[in-house]
Design brief:
Blueprint: H1 2-10, H2 12-31, H3 41-47, H4 52-60, H5 76-88, H6 93-99, H7 103-132, H8 153-180, H9 185-196, H10 198-233, E1 235-242, E2 244-248, E3 254-258, E4 261-267, H11 274-291, H12 299-311, H13 317-342, H14 344-350, E5 353-354, H15 362-397, H16 404-410, H17 415-446
Antiparallel strand pairs: 1-4, 1-5, 2-3
């Protein structure tokens, strides 16, 4: 990997792409420290100690939410819009037709995703700001004391406009990296935010647990990274044979084309980190709502809210069991959605390809679904293990702070963050090596 980066810096065009990527990351990190007007930093620090939903959103914003900067929502609305478009594509015939139109169709779908990002950013910005404007959220009072269209319409409009503009800027910077830099821009934006928190986490671990705990967490991190690399790179290669076709030429000559053999790679983890986001969002939402009803004057509402809050608390073992099961279920669901969108059996049949020993058509579809369900089990269990890793670390090492939530924040990089970081690094290095290989061949041809 180091050799590939060194070789890339020797080539002017690749060096320019790497410098553009680094420069855009620096711009994003600088913008992540520009706060929204009227933020109570003491109350903001306090609410992050007790709200699980904000911790998840802070990860996806690249750490900008902890400062409640103009980049507080990061690219999360854009990710949500992309997921919505992907899930609607098999249902809406117009979107399904666009998927089949190649590059032009993908460009149109990207436009729809960009447009959908704006209302989602406004909606999420209003939800997050309302959450932080609640005076009872923390002992320190409201994070945003001047929010609400009834009492502070102008200030509210400025806050929502700032957050939405920050999201659109983050999305544009990510697309700029994709077009003119190296790697997937949106993923690299999140990657930069996760890595930026590493020095603070090392210092926190060293202060709270000492050198031995820091060494233990480093070993856990290395072990987890090794497992993630093995699973992320794991695939089942399905052999595919293309039949020979006879094509008439001028005169009486005939030419036989086709007949080559290849394979279709089915990844062990096709869903990426999406199941973790889905499961986390579903589990933290009931506890977040219940936290605002804990001090209700109605005893029945207060007791129900307390029960829900305790059940969906990170300290409760059933929470982690539900987390594991939801991640496994969402992995199967999202993998099935992605596989159906690819429409692989029909594509093979249209191109004259077939799997040896399997009849084309419905038999090929059943065979691929059967193989995919078996290898997805490994990917689903792997993602479930990554999801509950903070709890396992808490059980093994016994963090001084109460609860597994402390383990998730004391880990050098959270388990979800590790999955993102490793995935981004692998994808970026593959693109970099492909660029180097292409330029190597170009240089060979010129010689």
């Amino acid at each position: 990997m180091i050799e590939a980066v060194r070789n890339a810096f020797r080539l002017p065009d690749l060096r320019r792409k790497l410098l553009i990527t680094l420069g855009i990351l620096v711009i994003y990190r600088l913008a992540a420290h520009i706060p929204v007007p009227g933020v109570n930093r003491v109350a903001l620090a306090a609410i992050f100690q007790q709200n699980q939903l904000l911790g998840l959103l802070n990860l996806l914003s690249g750490g900008a939410l902890s400062n409640f900067s103009v980049m507080a929502m990061g690219v999360y609305p854009y990710i949500t819009a992309s997921i919505i478009v992907q899930l609607l594509a098999p249902i809406v015939p117009q979107l399904q037709e666009l998927q089949k139109e190649g590059e032009a169709g993908r460009t149109k779908l990207n436009q729809y995703t960009n447009i959908l990002t704006i209302p989602l950013a406004l909606l999420q910005g209003f939800g997050q700001s309302s959450l932080l404007a609640n005076p009872g959220a923390t002992a320190g009072g409201a994070v945003l004391s001047e929010f609400g269209f009834r009492t502070y319409p102008l200030q509210t409009l400025v806050i929502l406009a700032s957050l939405t503009a920050g999201t659109m800027l983050a999305m544009w910077l990510g697309q700029l990296i994709t077009e003119q830099g190296i790697g997937n821009g949106v993923s690299i934006i999140i990657f930069g935010g996760i890595i930026s928190s590493l020095p603070a986490n090392v210092r926190s671990t060293l202060v709270q647990g000492g050198v031995l705990q820091l060494i233990a967490f480093i070993l856990v991190t290395i072990f987890t990274v090794a497992i993630i690399v093995v699973v992320q790179e794991g695939q089942r290669r399905i052999p595919v044979q293309y039949g020979k076709r006879v094509r008439a030429m001028r005169g009486n000559r005939l030419m036989v084309v086709g007949g080559q053999s290849t394979h279709v790679p089915l990844r062990v983890n096709s869903a990426g980190m999406i199941p973790l986001i889905f499961a986390s969002s579903m589990l933290v939402f009931p506890g977040t709502i219940a936290s605002y009803l804990l001090n209700s004057t109605n005893a029945v509402v207060r007791n129900i809210a307390t029960g829900i809050y305790n059940f969906f608390n990170w300290d409760n073992p059933p929470y982690w069991i539900m987390y594991f099961l939801l991640v496994v279920a969402f992995t199967y669901f999202y993998t099935d959605v992605i596989f159906r969108q690819q429409n692989l059996p029909e594509t093979l049949q249209r191109q004259g390809g077939f799997i040896p020993g399997i009849r084309p058509g419905i038999n090929t579809e059943r065979y691929l679904n059967r193989v995919l369900s078996r290898i997805t089990l490994v990917g689903a269990l792997f993602l479930g293990f990554v999801a509950i890793l903070p709890w396992l670390v808490h059980l093994v090492f016994g963090i001084a702070d109460a609860g597994a939530r402390s383990a998730s924040t004391t880990l050098l990089v959270s388990s979800t963050g590790l999955l993102i970081v490793v995935g981004v690094v692998l994808d970026t290095m593959k693109q970099l090596e492909a660029q180097l290989l292409m330029r190597h061949y170009e240089g060979f041809i010129r010689k």
